[in-house]
Write a structure and sequence with these properties.
The complex is a heterodimer of chains A (about 375) and B (about 425). Chain A is an alpha+beta fold. Chain A has 8 helices and 13 strands. Helices cover about 30% and strands about 30% of the residues of chain B. The chains are: A alpha+beta (about 375), B alpha+beta (about 425).
C-alpha cells in the first residue's frame, strides 16, 4: 500500500521507501528492527511538523492568564499575571480547558485543587461523525511528573506531537482483516509515542538538561472502524465502558501498584500503598524505557472509550466505579462527551482534587449488522 | 545605556500554613559606562585626608596619605568636579582654596597636587565637621553622582558626641563615602557607621605604604560607576511584612533600615552607584498563608534607575502538601544565610573580646571558624587564623591567640562582611 505525507518511512541505511510491514529493506537488504522503523517514522513526523510552537503560549491549554479580576480579592491582575493586591496568580487557560473536536468526542483537563499548576495535558482530534466508515477519534493524555520541574511543558508538547502523528496516520485498507488493522494502528501508535518522547526530551534540552528532566506518562487511544487501539507508558489509563454490561480497564499501569497486584495484592491494598503511584515507565530525557505497551479491542456494543489521568481514576479506579459515575452523570442531565467529562472532573474535585484531572471520552455506537 | 538583569533563587514551595518566603535575587549590571558621562549627571569627588596631629606618628603616615591623595587625583576623568579637604579640628579646603569644587584637568590636578604636598598635620579628629564640609561642597556643584573618600587614623575627638550622627543625617542621600582607617588607632564602629549610612565601604590599611594603591583603586571603581543611583523597589502583598532585605554579595549589608515607603505595598532601598558588576540580595517576606494549591506572588523585586524599571524578579509562594517539594532549602538561600551569620558571629565575638568576655568570644569565633571553613570562605578563614588557633574546625573549637596584633583584629572586624559567592553549579 502506498501512502503519502508523514506516514512515509525510509530505510535508515539507504533512504529507500519501505512498505508497511517489511522487515528488510527491499533496496539494500538492511534488517529493519522495529526501533529503526519507528525512529525513521518519528523523524518524518517531526520534519513535517510546522515551525515549533511554544507550548506555553499557543493553542488550547496555553499558560496565559484568563482575563478578569483576581478570584481571591477582586484586585487588578498585573502584567506578570499576579494580583497587584494579594499576589494571587491569575487563573490560566491551562488550569482548566475543554476540547470538543466533534459531537462524539470531548474531554476536560483540570488543575484539581491541591496542586498549584496543571501538569496534565490532553490533545483530542476526531472526524465529524462517529458512524462513518472513515470515522476516527484520537485521544491523547499525558500526566507530567510533578517532582520534575517543567513537566507541564513536557506533557503538552508530548500530547500535541502524538495527536498530530495519529491524525496524519493513513487509514488501514478498508478490507484489511482485524489482525492487519491491529498491526496498522499499533505501528502508528508506536510512532506517535516515540514522537511524544522526542518532544518531551526536547523540552529538557531547551531547559539546558536539568538534573531532574521534565517527564510525563503517555496514553493514546484510536477509535476507528469498530475497534479501539491503545498505547500507554506509565499510569494514565484507557477504559471501555459499555452502556450495558461489564466495563474493562484496557491498559495496565506501569507502576509499583501493578507489580504489587501481580504479586498477589488486591487492587484495594495495592492502590492504598504509598508507593503504588511510583511509575516504572515514562517519557522524557531520563526515561529508562519509553516504549509503550499496546492493546486493541473490537467494539461491538454502544458505550464510551474513556482515557484519563490518575487524578480521575484515583477516585474511581474500577471500570464498575467509572461506569457508575457515567450513568449517574447521564441521569443528572449531562449529555455528550464534553459534558460528561466536565461532570466527572467536577466530581473528582469534590472528592478533594488531590491531583490534576484529565478525562476524555469517545462515543461508540452499536454496530449495525 | 546600562542594562540590568535579575535572577531569583528560591524554593517557592511552602508547607500548609507556612508564611515565610526567602529568596536570593541576583542583580547584574552591564554596559554601565563611566561616571558622569552616561546620562546620570556630572560626577563629583571629594577626598578628605586626616591631618590631625597623630598623622605624624610615625611621619610616614602623612607622607603616604599625600602620595595616596595625588594618586587618586590621577585617576579622575577629565571634567569630573573635585575637591581635596584636610580634616583636623575642623575641615579646611586644600584645593581649590575657596569652598567649592574644581573641574578635573591636567592643570587643576597639578595645582591640587602641589597643594597636597604642603599638607602638614596638627589638631584633633572632628570627623562630623569633615562630613558636613563634604555635604556642603557637593550641594554647591551641579553634580548628581557624588562620591567621597575619607581617610583617618584616629578616633573622633574634638567635637561634641552626637556631632557625627547629626552630620550623617545631613549627608544621607547626598553622597556615597568610602572610609579607610590607616594604622590601628581608629575605631571600626565609627567608620562602619559612616560607610553604612553613606552606602560606602570600610577597610583597614594597616601599613601606610599601601594607601596609594588602595586610593587609586577606589577612584577607579567610582569612575566606573556609570549608573549614579539604582534603587531596589520591593512590592509585597497586602497583609505581608518585608522581614528584611539584605545585600549578601559581595558583602553583607542590611538594607532594611534604609527602606523608604513609596506606597502602601511598595518600599524602596537605595543601593548607590553601579558599575559593571553583580550583587546578590536576600529578601525575606512574611505573607498571609493561602490554602494548599494556591500560587501567589510574595514579592516583586525591581531595579529602578531614574524612575525606570530596568529589571524585575518575581519571588513566589506555592502552598503544597508534597513534603519532597516543601522541605527543600535553596542552596543560595542556605549559603547566604550562613555568610550573614558568619559576619554576625565575628562582629559579636570581637565585641565580646574587647569587653573582656573571652569565653563568649571563644565560642563565637569558634562558630565563625567552622562557618568560614564549611562555606569555603578562605579570606575570612585566613583573617580568623591571625586571631584564633583552630583546635577542631568541624566542632568549631578554637583558642584565642595569646598575643593578637590589634590591626589583625581590626582587619577581621572590617572584612567580616566579605562573602563568597554561592556555587551555582547544580
Amino acid at each position: 500500500m502506498s501512502s503519502t505525507g508523514v506516514g512515509d518511512v525510509a530505510c535508515p541505511q539507504c533512504g529507500a521507501a519501505i512498505a508497511s510491514g517489511d522487515t528488510f529493506c527491499e533496496a539494500c537488504g538492511t534488517a529493519l528492527v522495529a526501533d529503526a522503523v519507528a525512529a525513521a517514522a518519528v523523524a518524518a513526523v517531526l520534519a513535517a511538523a510546522a515551525a515549533p510552537v511554544d507550548p506555553d503560549r499557543a493553542g488550547a491549554g496555553a499558560n496565559v492568564s484568563v482575563p478578569g479580576p483576581c478570584v481571591v480579592c477582586g484586585g487588578v491582575i498585573d502584567d506578570d499575571g499576579f494580583c497587584g493586591t494579594c499576589g494571587q496568580k491569575a487563573r490560566t487557560e491551562r488550569d482548566h480547558w475543554i476540547e470538543s473536536p466533534a459531537v462524539w468526542v470531548g474531554g476536560v483537563c483540570d488543575k484539581g485543587i491541591v496542586h498549584s499548576g496543571n501538569e496534565d495535558a490532553m490533545a483530542l482530534a476526531a472526524t465529524p461523525f462517529g458512524d462513518r466508515t472513515d470515522a476516527r477519534a484520537v485521544l491523547v493524555v499525558c500526566d507530567g511528573v510533578t517532582s520534575a520541574p517543567h513537566s507541564d511543558r513536557a506533557s503538552i508538547a508530548a500530547v500535541r506531537a502524538a495527536c498530530a502523528a495519529l491524525v496524519a496516520a493513513p487509514p488501514p485498507a478498508a478490507d484489511d482483516p482485524f489482525p492487519a488493522q491491529l498491526d496498522h494502528w499499533q505501528r502508528h501508535l508506536g510512532v506517535a509515542c516515540a514522537a511524544a518522547n522526542v518532544e518531551a526530551v526536547a523540552v529538557a534540552r531547551v531547559l539546558g538538561d536539568p538534573p531532574e528532566p521534565p517527564s510525563c506518562t503517555f496514553v493514546a487511544a484510536i477509535v476507528a472502524q469498530h475497534l479501539v487501539s491503545v498505547a500507554w507508558c506509565g499510569d494514565s489509563r484507557a477504559y471501555w465502558i459499555p452502556d450495558a454490561g461489564e466495563g474493562e480497564e484496557l491498559s495496565t499501569d506501569h507502576s509499583i501498584g501493578t507489580e504489587l497486584m501481580r504479586a498477589g495484592a488486591t487492587r484495594e491494598i495495592a492502590e492504598a500503598d504509598p508507593a503504588s503511584h511510583t511509575i516504572t515507565r515514562w517519557l522524557g530525557a531520563d526515561s529508562v524505557d519509553p516504549t509503550p505497551e499496546y492493546v486493541t479491542r473490537r467494539l461491538d456494543d454502544a458505550g464510551w472509550v474513556v482515557v484519563c489521568s490518575d487524578g480521575m481514576w484515583n477516585y474511581a479506579s474500577t471500570p464498575q466505579a467509572l461506569g457508575a459515575l457515567l450513568t449517574e452523570a447521564g441521569a443528572d442531565g449531562a449529555t455528550g462527551p464534553t459534558a460528561l467529562a466536565e461532570s466527572l472532573a467536577a466530581w473528582a474535585n469534590d472528592q478533594g482534587g488531590h491531583d490534576n484531572i484529565t478525562v476524555a471520552l469517545a462515543r461508540h455506537e452499536r454496530q449495525v449488522p | 545605556m546600562a542594562e540590568f538583569t535579575a535572577e531569583v533563587f528560591q524554593n517557592e514551595y511552602l508547607s500548609d500554613g507556612a508564611t515565610d518566603v526567602h529568596a536570593v535575587v541576583s542583580i547584574t549590571c552591564s554596559g554601565a559606562g563611566v561616571a558622569g558621562q552616561t546620562g546620570s549627571g556630572e560626577a563629583a569627588e571629594v577626598i578628605i585626608i586626616d591631618t590631625s596631629g597623630s598623622m605624624d606618628m610615625p611621619p610616614n603616615k602623612i607622607a603616604s596619605a599625600r602620595r595616596a591623595a595625588k594618586a587618586a587625583l590621577n585617576e579622575l576623568i577629565d571634567g569630573t568636579w573635585f575637591a581635596v579637604v584636610s580634616g583636623h579640628s575642623l575641615a579646611q579646603m586644600v584645593y581649590p582654596t575657596h569652598p567649592g569644587l574644581a573641574r578635573s584637568s591636567e592643570v587643576t590636578r597639578g595645582e591640587a597636587g602641589a597643594a597636597i604636598d604642603r599638607l602638614r598635620s596638627g589638631g584633633a579628629t572632628a570627623i562630623g565637621s569633615w562630613i558636613d564640609a563634604a555635604t556642603e561642597l557637593f550641594q554647591q556643584a551641579p553634580s548628581s553622582q557624588r562620591h567621597a573618600i575619607l581617610l583617618t587614623d584616629g578616633k573622633i575627638e574634638g567635637e561634641a558626641s552626637g556631632a557625627l550622627d547629626e552630620a550623617l543625617q545631613r549627608a544621607r542621600g547626598v553622597f556615597q563615602c568610602d572610609c579607610r582607617g590607616v594604622g590601628d588607632g581608629w575605631v571600626v564602629s565609627e567608620l562602619r557607621k559612616i560607610a553604612d549610612t553613606l552606602l560606602g565601604t570600610v577597610d583597614i590599611i594597616a601599613s601606610p605604604e599601601d594607601l596609594e594603591a588602595d586610593f587609586e583603586s577606589m577612584i577607579r571603581t567610582s569612575m566606573s560607576r556609570g549608573v549614579a543611583d539604582a534603587r531596589l523597589r520591593v512590592w509585597a502583598p497586602q497583609g505581608s511584612q518585608v522581614m528584611f532585605v539584605r545585600q549578601v554579595a559581595p558583602t553583607v549589608e542590611d538594607l532594611t533600615p534604609r527602606a523608604v515607603q513609596i506606597s502602601p505595598l511598595v518600599v524602596e532601598f537605595p543601593t548607590g552607584g553601579w558599575s559593571d558588576e553583580s550583587r546578590d540580595y536576600h529578601v525575606a517576606v512574611r505573607v498571609p498563608a493561602a490554602p494548599v494549591g494556591n500560587e501567589r506572588l510574595a514579592a516583586r523585586v525591581e531595579t529602578v534607575v531614574n524612575d525606570q524599571v530596568l529589571a524585575k524578579a518575581l519571588v513566589k509562594a506555592i502552598w503544597s502538601i508534597d513534603t519532597d517539594l516543601t522541605t527543600r532549602i535553596d542552596p543560595a538561600v542556605a549559603h547566604y544565610t550562613g555568610q550573614a551569620q558568619l559576619a554576625d558571629v565575628i562582629q559579636r565575638g570581637l565585641a565580646a573580646k574587647s569587653a573582656g568576655d573571652d569565653r563568649t568570644a571563644t565560642v563565637l569565633l569558634g562558630e565563625a571558624a567552622k562557618l568560614a571553613h564549611d562555606s569555603g570562605n578562605e579570606s575570612t578563614t585566613r583573617l580568623l587564623a591571625k586571631v584564633v588557633d583552630v583546635v577542631d574546625v568541624d566542632a568549631g573549637t578554637v583558642r584565642l591567640k595569646a598575643k593578637i596584633d590589634k590591626s589583625d583584629e581590626m582587619a577581621l572586624d572590617t572584612r567580616s562582611t566579605k562573602t563568597t559567592r554561592v556555587n551555582r553549579q547544580p
